[in-house]
Amino acid sequence: AHNGTVGATTPATGSFTTLGTSGDITLTTANVVVSSGNGVDFSATADATGMTAEILDDYEEGMHTATLVGSTSGNFVLSAAGETLAYTKVGRVVHVQGRLSVTSDNSALGTLRMSLPYTVTALTDEAEDPYTPCAFYNHGGTIVNAHVQVVSGQAYAHFYAIADNGISSAIDEGVLDTGWVVNVNFSYISE
What we know:
Blueprint: E1 17-19, E2 25-27, E3 40-41, E4 55-56, E5 59-65, E6 68-70, E7 73-78, E8 84-90, E9 93-109, E10 112-115, E11 131-133, E12 135-137, E13 146-150, E14 156-162, E15 168-170, E16 180-189
Antiparallel strand pairs: 1-2, 3-4, 5-8, 6-7, 6-10, 7-9, 8-9, 9-16, 10-14, 11-13, 12-16, 13-14, 14-15
């Protein structure tokens, strides 16, 4: 039977937890703190073929101040009100979303790159390689079927347009004015 003792400490009544007769723990004024390298163990559940981990060891929410650069050189300047992406990291999956607003071109040259809050992992058979739709507008050109693609082993993503015939071409400074907006909403697997 539970006597209210946690380790060698007897907490004051109602101070932080209760242990019910069913085995449920109720936290009333505290958090569960997991030491580094540990997590919630789901090994009691059934496993799918190819399972590689059953420990949930990370959770984080935050804001990422993004950069947009050319893969060769230069960058696009973002407005102060349009330079931040929201992200949530659960385990190694990172979800990123937001709107970036460009105010000027600072000699950007090459494929458009966007910084990410975490480095993209390298998996077998390019399993880490999502191609996700995004939206460009007020760019002054013709961008059809815009997509964002993360880059394995890097903390950035590239932007591409996919023509009706399936041919992919890089989005670069040649199809973008000096002021434009891009909206993104995608997930990727981090290291």
